[in-house]
Specification:
The complex is a heterodimer of chains A (184) and B (179). With 184 residues, chain A is an alpha+beta fold. Chain A has a single domain (26-174), classed as Immunoglobulin-like (Sandwich). Chain A has two helices and eleven strands, in the order αβββββββββββα. Chain A has helices spanning 2-13, 156-179, and strands at 16-18, 28-33, 36-42, 47-56, 62-69, 81-82, 89-91, 95-98, 102-111, 122-131, 137-149. In chain A, the strands form two sheets. In chain A, strands 3, 5, 6, 8, 10 and 11 form a six-stranded mixed β-sheet that branches. A four-stranded antiparallel β-sheet of chain A has the order 2-4-9-7, with no helix packed on it. In chain A, a hairpin with a 5-residue loop joins strand 10 and strand 11 (137-149). Chain B has one domain (39-178): Sandwich (Immunoglobulin-like), CATH 2.60.40. Chain B has one helix at residues 2-23; strands at residues 31-34, 40-44, 52-54, 59-61, 69-73, 79-84, 88-90, 97-100, 110-117, 126-127, 133-134, 149-157, 167-169, 172-178. In chain B, the strands form two sheets. In chain B, strands 2, 4, 5, 7, 8, 9, 10, 12 and 13 form a nine-stranded mixed β-sheet that branches. In chain B, strands 11-6-14 form a three-stranded antiparallel β-sheet, with no helix packed on it. The radius of gyration of chain B is 28 Å and the shape is elongated. Chain B starts with a helix and ends with a strand. Classes of the chains: A alpha+beta (184), B mainly beta (179). At the A-B interface, helix 1, strand 1, strand 2, strand 3 and strand 4 of A face helix 1, strand 1, strand 2, strand 3 and strand 13 of B. Strand 1 of chain A pairs parallel with strand 13 (167-169) of chain B.
Chain lengths: 184, 179
């Protein structure tokens, strides 16, 4: 049964074409500034923004798409965890057309939800800028985005410990003062 | 009574001294640093590879085999580079696909893709998969610097069986991040 299928496939195969692109072959050459962004002491509930500049260095117009991307585990900066939610990052434009040999800016907004559990964290995510193409080879440039949130994390254990300490200290002081011999 | 009140007040004061700095939220200005405004850039001198008519279960290589395309690093920062591929789709109806195999082998409606960097004798041809893999290998240097270039070629292994007379299209993405 397998043999006839393989034979039919071989015969049919000669009739198949691959056309990765109907357009003429092109070079692709562009750049993004900056290559790496550090945001420090961003408190939960706050937001901040910065600009990416995309420079089309080709002599034809290109469209570019901007997306967030999870970094490869062994490629993140030391001590950085994965960014929790890509929805916290928005772009002024996710697709932009740039004419030949010119540049354009995209505003990136980073907003951290107002939850104490996001305080005191160090995250990394990548912002990918891809030159759209129907060719077989495409190029994507990643911008490293390093976000450190300010504030201190709520620690339930610490709060419970302090509460217990208050009670013990109160009782201890009470008995100390009560049993201390009074001066005659 | 006086002793009890004194004790409780003392406990509260001591607890506050310890806990307030710990529980207080820091408030300071947000700092955004754009490391020296480094520019990241790579370019390819060739992006299209048209194979024309192909048969099932056959191997096709770019010409020249491993110096077909040149990747050049521009910008001002060293980069780590990656490569990833995808399924090949029929341009008339993308629901018909050739699945990209995860080890470079082929099968029924499954094809293999490989790349080879000129001078990379240690790895030779490396499978391109849907998972982002390292393009420039650490044995040759962990990253590429501005002005560096690297030549490479591609190899395609067609499926052992596929539907005929269909124009298929696929894309390989080469990416870079600041090292």
């Amino acid at each position: 049964m397998v043999q006839p299928i393989r034979l039919a496939g071989l015969i049919a195969g000669f009739l198949v074409m691959i056309f990765p692109s109907l357009a003429l072959a092109e070079n692709v050459n562009f750049s993004v500034v900056p290559a790496e962004v550090h945001i420090d002491t961003l408190l939960p509930g706050e937001e901040t923004e910065f600009e990416l500049t995309i420079h089309n260095k080709d002599d034809i117009v290109h469209n570019y798409t901007i997306t967030t991307s999870t970094p490869l585990e062994d490629q993140t900066r030391e001590g950085r965890a994965r960014f929790p939610d890509d929805d916290w990052i928005t772009f002024s434009r996710q697709r932009i057309e740039i004419t030949a040999d010119s540049q354009a800016n995209v505003t990136v907004v980073v907003a951290i939800p107002q939850e104490q559990r996001w305080a005191g964290r160090d995250w990394e995510t990548w912002l990918g800028v891809t030159a759209e193409s129907s060719d077989m080879l495409a190029v994507r440039l990643y911008v490293r985005l390093l976000v450190s949130t300010g504030g201190r994390r709520f620690n339930p254990g610490l709060v419970a410990g302090i509460a217990v300490a208050v009670v013990l200290l109160g009782f201890g002081s009470y008995y100390y003062f009560k049993r201390r011999p009074r001066p005659e | 009574m006086k002793t009890a009140v004194t004790s409780i007040l003392l406990a509260i004061v001591l607890a506050s001294v310890v806990s307030l700095p710990v529980l207080a939220q820091e408030s300071s200005a947000i700092t955004i640093t754009m490391t020296g405004l480094d520019e990241i850039s790579i370019s390819l001198d060739k992006t299209d590879w048209s194979l024309g008519f192909i048969a099932s279960d056959t191997t096709h290589e770019t010409d020249p085999a491993i110096q077909w395309c040149t990747l050049t690093v521009g910008g001002t920062c060293n980069v780590n580079t990656f490569i990833t591929g995808g399924d090949a789709e029929w341009i008339s109806d993308p629901s018909y696909k050739w699945t990209l195999s995860n080890d470079g082998t082929n099968g029924v409606h499954t094809y293999g893709l490989w790349f080879r960097i000129s001078g990379d004798t240690a790895r030779g041809y490396v499978p391109i998969t849907k998972t982002q893999g390292e393009f420039w290998p650490p044995p040759l240097g962990s990253s590429l610097a501005p002005g560096d270039s690297s030549q490479f070629g591609l190899r395609l292994l067609s499926p052992t069986y596929f539907y005929s007379s269909r124009q298929m299209q696929t894309q390989i993405t080469i990416s870079a991040v600041a090292a």
